[in-house]
């Protein structure tokens, strides 16, 4: 029997409050309104950004359904939806592409004005499509994928090749694309260059893959957790270091290692201290540093402007600079053509209901990416 037009009851991982575990609940998911799409989720990765919500480092309204790195199948569509149909395999997009705002129209832009990076938690009409135990449950970054069914706006969904394995290409919905694009599109890493990557989680490893694809000849991975080094070397790092191994500032250690010639640095941790360390570590004149880690909300950072005065470039990017609806299907095609390998990023696969276990693996530093299967 078709579920189109009806409320769907299904299981979701609800966060009732910050700093609490996920609670698997039965929720109601309303049918999609005009220009909206209801998606059955097949697989969803666990990204550190989801944890930022739990820890209140990123704004969100509670109760909330987080998760933003997923693959699914369109279950039904609202009025006026033209670009996807029921049965299509899709990736929900935490970064929309409305096609009309200044960022969408500019060839260099990608942060669409319709993005919800400030935690509004509602769809375009100001309401949510989720309820649980009679209470309104909020959306997260236009996606909310830790649920069997979700509703997103049409501008937040990319149709992908039907042949794509859902439990792998979900990573193209965030972690992989963010890191890979940070190197290829935002940093514009050049052949023969020297790069340093701070933070060797799923996103940092994807930065390394991007640096390697761009032809960097030296790629230095930096992490406090040395267990992360092995994987970093496999995906393309030429050497790895821990800031704990020297009493000197990491910028000095890198300058000594490279004869003061680090061209590009990437901050992929999400801490002010590493943002400044990464900036100071690229060449004082022609170096470029890219902020990829999500900055803690409501905190200001002070820095010595001399770091920029001498010529460094300091940039940031959301979703690796990719235009989401245009580029996600192309990245899936590139994956199917074996242009990059996502297997290296996937360390654990768990049934959706073991989501709390998945987060424990992130906290203990054991996982790169855990994929939840529905
Ligand atoms: N810009 C975007 O669009 C975007 C998208 C996805 C994720 N992010 C952000 O990217 C960051 C990384 O995400 P992830 O999923 O790879 O996280 P992760 O937690 O898996 O990886 C972070 C790594 O940093 C290491 N680390 C912690 N403190 C460190 C320090 N002081 N020096 C060096 N290394 C340190 C940890 O050991 C870990 O290996 C997060 O802040 C996340 O929110 C941003
Ligand atoms: Zn993410
Ligand atoms: Zn737009």
What does this structure look like?
The structure is a single chain. Among the domains are: 145 residues, NAD(P)-binding Rossmann-like Domain (Rossmann fold, 3-Layer(aba) Sandwich), CATH 3.40.50; 34 residues, no CATH class. The chain is 25% helix and 23% strand. It has 374 residues and is an alpha/beta fold. It is globular. The strands form 3 sheets. Strands 3, 4, 5, 8, 9, 16 and 17 form a 7-stranded mixed beta sheet that branches. The chain has a 6-stranded parallel beta sheet with strand order 12-11-10-13-14-15, with helices on both faces. The model has no long low-confidence stretch (mean pLDDT 97). Helix 4 packs across helix 5. The structure holds nicotinamide-adenine-dinucleotide and zinc ion (ZN) (2 copies).
Q: How would you classify the helix and strand content by structural class?
A: alpha/beta
The radius of gyration computed from the alpha-carbon positions, rounded to a whole number of angstroms, is: 20 Å
Instruction: Tell me the number of strands.
Output: 17
Indicate the low-confidence ranges by residue numbers.
none
Biggest sheet record: 7 strands, mixed
- Write the element-wise H/E pattern from the N-terminal end onward: EEEHEEHEEEEHHEHEHEHEHEHEHEHE
What quaternary form is this? single chain
CATH class of the domain at 176-320 reads Alpha Beta
Subcellular location: Cytoplasm
Pfam family, one: ADH_zinc_N
Domain Alcohol dehydrogenase-like N-terminal: 34-161
Organism: Dipodomys ordii (Ord's kangaroo rat)
